[in-house]
Amino acid sequence: MEFFKCSIGGEVYGHGVTEIERGIAERNGMKVEEYKSPNAVQEKGFNFDDSRIMRGAWRNESNPDICKEFFRCLAICHTVLPEGEESPEKIKYQAASPDESALVIAAKNFGFFFYRRTPTAIYVRESHVEKIGQIQDASYEILNVLEFNSTRKRQSVVCRYSDGRLVLYCKGADTVIYERLADGNNEIRNITREHLEQFGSAGLRTLCLAYKELHPDAYESWNEKFIQAKSSLRDREKKLDEVAELIENGLTLIGCTAIEDKLQEGVPGCIATLQRAGIKIWVLTGDKIETAINIAYACNLISNEMKKFIISSETDAIREVEDKGDPVEIARFIKDEVKKELKKCTEEARSYFNSGSAPKLALVIDGKCLMYALDPSLRVMLLDLGLNCHSVVCCRVSPLQKAQVTSMVKKGARKITLGIGDGANDVSMIQAAHVGVGISGMEGMQAVMASDFAIAQFRYLEDLLLVHGRWSYLRVCKVVLYFFYKNLTFALTQFWFTFQTGYSGQRFYDDWFQSLYNVIFTAVPVVIVGLFDKDVSASLSKKYPELYKEGIKNVYFKWRVVALYAFFSIYQSLIFFYFVATTTLTAKNLDGKIFGLWDISTMAFTCVVITVNLRLLLICNSITRWHYISVGGSILAWFIFVFIYSLICHLFGRENIYFVIFVLMSTFYFYLMLLLVPIAALFCDFVYQGVQRWFFPYDYQVIQEMHKNELNDTGRAKLLEVGNQLTEDQARSYAVSRLPPQISKHTGFAFDSPGYESFFASQIGVYAPPKAWDVARRASMKSRLKIVLQK
């Protein structure tokens, strides 16, 4: 946030070109020339350049009194806390938002340096007030602070000058300030409105500043009501707002400020990538409509090729009705206008779609119109229009409206919504969405604390959704389907057994086999899949964002996929039971006896454990050593368990299983079944996956084939990539850090003086300038060497 321009008394001050203006010029094929004064002040939060009002030159302007009130409003009307030394160069400001901090920094650079705050007063060091070059300290008694909130959209301070003069300073959104201005002086109002539109078109965030001189008697009467409202135990906030309305009227407009909120790095590219992934983006902002539109252009959210539907309350017809001052008539008229515009835009959108060559559509609506569009009678029309548009921008919206729009899409369209924001005014939107993402930055940590995920910059949303989010979707789908498959397979083998027992209730497996099937024998491999499985690398996921559309269409978790897994479960369970049961009719052990129930069930259970674990490797897209360890370990755990259990089961009254595995493993039949049953069970899977990959491939399988000869972007490759991007200074520092740390074997002053490191660096062809701390380091090493020798 940087103070960039301002309008004082109908005059614009500030030179320079914003990022948004540069983008507009590039789109129109124009070249913008930017001039920067060599004496311009450079400070974080202040990017203003105009010699007409800097360094006391404002006293020579045609409106010095208005300029003085403007600067005092910036220095007094805030809740900023100063920290550090009381000097302009070293002081630090702690503010609730970067906007407020930027305004106080601007006042300091204009010569109104706010340096101290007490519970009842603000101290400002004012320069050039009486005459240019003169500095004086002024204290202002703070009588009341009417704080900013999302409903009021303004902040006011009642202060008393040292001469007893009472003044109310107010700053806020132009919509609320203009409603509370005194009659008359329409020329400045109209000129400032034009300046506001001009600033908004440049992508600047605007605030209007106004003041009002108070009569002592009127203030005392109002202050009694304020104290009563402040001490109220019920509806305190509501009563405070009502009392504030009594004094925040009849204001005199001073001017407006324009603050540049620069886009974070990578935002346009991130938004373009997310749109390619099939994600619809709705921007809900508190900025003016002109600012919001130009920021949307800068973010690649809106382009010149799009057809834009703009529903705004800033029309001549609405202004005429608002000038009459009848709130009932204003509400009725705006609602009718919004309904008419929504119906017109919807019909136009349908005509575009019916024509066959429809351009991309964009909807822009401001907060006042949105308030009526969210009415139950119109919200369906608004939602239908918004869903048919490629981009939607809602400007001048309150936090409540952000939450209402999110809930409308969430419940009305039954879509999965994600809310992302960086400030306290985004908390309600983040909480209303299915998934909330908070950006930790200058706006505070409220959004982060209320969110499900926290990121440092907006561009990281690309990795969160297209890489980790997509991988997570694939893993969850596989884990859920695999659990369904392995349990259905296991249960169906027992189901087929009931047909052979006449539904007598005889169990097929031992109780311990059933209990440990999900706990030990098939538990770890599926966890490994849920942690490590990925179809394509992170770089390819971002290179081909269209892969994300498969998740939007729910390709991997349809009923067809569930039915396919159920089919394989039925097929394999039939193989496990009937293949094993049928072949054992003629099989005998070494004693010449045929196999019994527990021999068959143990054989079948062994085949189930081996096949279910091996099938997991078939459905994996990436197999690591952890997959092999988990699958092999699970199968090994079964054999270890059954060996031990067969020896000690008689101690628990389970004589049926006693020595069964040893009898089975002493026969050739056992090893033949271990080879044939898994092959027969997995044959159908193998054929299906081959046919599907060759003739009906998923998108990610096409990408896999395209890049099958490329190295995966593992950690080693990432390190090499970073190493190749080292600057010359970084490469030199790295080479110096690789120097031998031992004490020099050479003697003499030349090797114990500054430049020891530089000498050895020169031996390997790297220039390293000598450092002053070499002396102390070499001296400390020398003293430690003497101590060792003495010992």
Automatic annotation (TrEMBL):
It comes from the Eukaryota. It is a multi-pass membrane protein. Its EC number is 7.6.2.1. Its main location: membrane. Signal peptide: none annotated. Residues 448-697 form the P-type ATPase C-terminal domain. Pfam families: Cation_ATPase, PhoLip_ATPase_C. It is an enzyme of class 7 (translocase). The chain crosses the membrane at residues 479-497, 512-532, 562-580, 600-619, 626-648, 668-688. SUPFAM superfamilies: Calcium ATPase, transmembrane domain M, HAD-like, Metal cation-transporting ATPase, ATP-binding domain N. It is found in: Endomembrane system; Membrane. It catalyses: ATP + H2O + phospholipidSide 1 = ADP + phosphate + phospholipidSide 2. InterPro entries: ATPase_P-typ_cyto_dom_N, ATPase_P-typ_TM_dom_sf, HAD-like_sf, HAD_sf, P-type_ATPase_IV, P_typ_ATPase, P_typ_ATPase_c. Keywords: ATP-binding, Magnesium, Membrane, Metal-binding, Nucleotide-binding, Translocase, Transmembrane, Transmembrane helix, Transport. Belongs to the cation transport ATPase (P-type) (TC 3.A.3) family. Type IV subfamily. NCBIfam families: ATPase-Plipid, ATPase_P-type. This is Phospholipid-transporting ATPase. It comes from Stylosanthes scabra.
